[in-house]
Amino acid sequence: MPLYTYSAANQNGEIVKGEQEAESEKKLAEALKSDSIFLLEATIKQALGMQSLIARANIVELFLRLRPVSTLDKMFFSRNLSVMIGAGLSLTKALDALSREAPNPKFRACLSEVNSAIAGGKSFADALRVHQAIFGELFINMIEVGENSGKLTLILKLLARQMKKDHELKSRVHGAMMYPAIIVMAVMVIGSLMMIYVVPTLVGTIRELGAQIPPTTLFIIWLSESITHYGLYILAGLMAIVYLFVHMFRTVAGKEVFDRIALHLPIFGKLIRQFNIARFSRTLSYLITSGVPIVRALEITSSVLGNAHYRKAVHSASEEIQKGAPLHALLAQSPTLFNPLVIQMIGVGEETGTLGSMLLRIAIFFEEDVNNATKNLSTLIEPILMIVIGMAVGFFVISMLQPIYSSLGSL
Fold first, then answer.
1. How far apart are CA 170 and CA 337, in angstroms?
2. Burial class (CB in 10 A: 0-12, 13-18, 19+), 284
3. Are residues 181 and 318 located together in one domain of the fold?
C-alpha cells in the first residue's frame, strides 16, 4: 500500500500532519474520520529529489507570490470548508486552519483578512465582498444565500462542484488548442530560419547560373531579404499589432466584434456556443436551486459568461423577465445563441416548476458535447494543418528549385 503524507483538521480546528499507509486517498479519509480527524490534503510520499529542491528555490517562491488565485485554489477551499463546517467546526476556526494551509501565499493572506473581518462582526459574504476580484460575484452571492438560508455547507459543496466543472471545461478547450498552437509556432520559427540561412545560399546559386527568376521566386527572395535586414522592425511591428489587438479586445465594442466573429468560425463557433450554454445552464441551475430570485440569478449568470453576446442576451432577459415574460420566450429572441432544444427544455421546466433540474440536465448534455468535441478537435485540425504546411513547403521548394532546374535543362 502507498504511504501518504497528509494534512488534516481535528474537532478543535487544529491542523494535524502525519503519515499513514492506505489503499487510496478515500480509504485514508475514512480511517482518519473514525478518529474524528478530517482530511484536508494528502500526497503519496516520495524521496526528496531534484524537483523538491527546485521547489524550495527563491525563484519558485517568487513565482508563487505572483501567481494569481486559480479556480482550483477556490475549489479546494470550498470543498474543505464545507467538510470542516459539516463536522461542527466554527467558521472562524475552519478559516483559520485553511488560511494557514493554503499553498498560494496571495490566497493565504486573503483568507486571513476574511477571517479577521468575520471575527470583527462582518458576515461571511460581506467579508468576501472586499475581495470580489478573487472570488467573483457568483461565489459571494451564493455564500450570502447560504448564510441567510442556513445551508452554507450545501452551498459550498455546490460551489466546489461548479468550479470543478468550469475548470474541466476550460482545461479541455485549452488542451485542444495547445497542439495546433505549438505546430504553428514551430513552423513559423523553422520558416524564419530558412529565410535567413537557406534562401540566401540558393539565391547565390541561381544568380551564378544566370537563370531567369520567376515572380514566385522573386517573392521568396524579397521576403528573405526583408526578414534578414529588417527582422527586428518586423518583430516590433508584430508586437505592436498584437498589443493593439489585445487593447481593442478589452474594449466593449472590440470584444463584441471579436466574439461575433468567433461564433461564426468553422469548428470553433459550435464549440464556443456549447461551452457558453453549458456554463449558463449550470450556473443558473445552482443559483435557482439555492433560492436566488430569477432576476438576480440571471444578472449573476450574465456576468460569468465568456462571450459578450451571451452576456448581453442573458442580461436583457433579466430586465424583460420582470415584466412577466417567460424565460424561454426571451431566450428564443436569440436563435443563433440558444438552439430550439435548449429553449424547449427551459419552457418545459418553467411549465412544470422544475426549471433548476431541467437546466442542470441541459448543462450535463452540453458539457458532454464539449467533451466529445475537444477530443476530436485535434483529429479535425491536424489534417488541415498538414495540408496548409504541405502547400507552403511545396510553394517554397518549387519557387526556389524551378530556376535551377530550368538553367540546368538549357545547358
1. 19
2. buried
3. yes
Q: Does residue 138 carry a pLDDT above 90? A: no
pLDDT tens-digit readout, 352-373: 989 989 999 998 898 888 888 7
- The sign of the torsion formed by the CA atoms of 86, 92, 94, 99 equals positive
* Pairing of β 38-44 and β 15-21: unpaired
**Inside any domain, residue 74:** no
Spatial separation of the C-alpha atoms in residues 97 and 77, rounded to whole Å: 11
Residue whose C-alpha is closest to residue 274's, from 203, 137, 372: 372
CATH of the domain at 313: 1.20.81.30
Domain co-membership, 263 together with 404: yes
Beta bridge partners of 9: 15, 38
At residue 77's C-alpha, the angle toward residues 72 and 83, to 5°, is: 130
Helix (H) or strand (E) holding 138: helix 132-149
Give the domain-ending residue among 46, 66, 82: 46
pLDDT of residue 66: 59
Question: Are residue 314 and residue 177 in the same domain, yes or no?
Answer: yes
Grid coordinates standing for 258? 471579436
Contacts for 165-169 with beta carbons within 8 Å, 24 or more apart? Answer: 165/282, 165/363, 165/367, 166/71, 166/279, 167/71, 167/72, 167/75, 168/367, 169/275, 169/278, 169/279, 169/367, 169/370
Helix and strand element counts for the chain (H, E): 18, 3
Asked whether residue 97 is assigned to any structural domain, the reply reads: no
SS3 assignment, position 19: strand
Nearest to 355 by CA among 328, 334, 337, 330: 328
Which H/E stretch holds residue 347? helix 340-352
Residue type, 221: I
Domain that holds residue 330: 162-411
Q: Is 96 domain-assigned? A: no
- 284: in domain: yes
Give the list of residues 6+ apart from residue 102 with CB closer than 8 angstroms, or none: 73, 77, 108, 111
Is the separation of the CB atoms in 39 and 32 below 8 Å? yes
Handedness of CA 172, 177, 183, 189 (dihedral sign): negative
- The pLDDT tens digits of the residues spanning 38-68 come to 777 777 765 444 444 444 444 544 555 556 7
Distance CA 314, CA 121 (A): 36
> Per the structure, how many domains does the chain have?
2
CB contact at 8 A, 177 and 185: no
SS3 41: strand
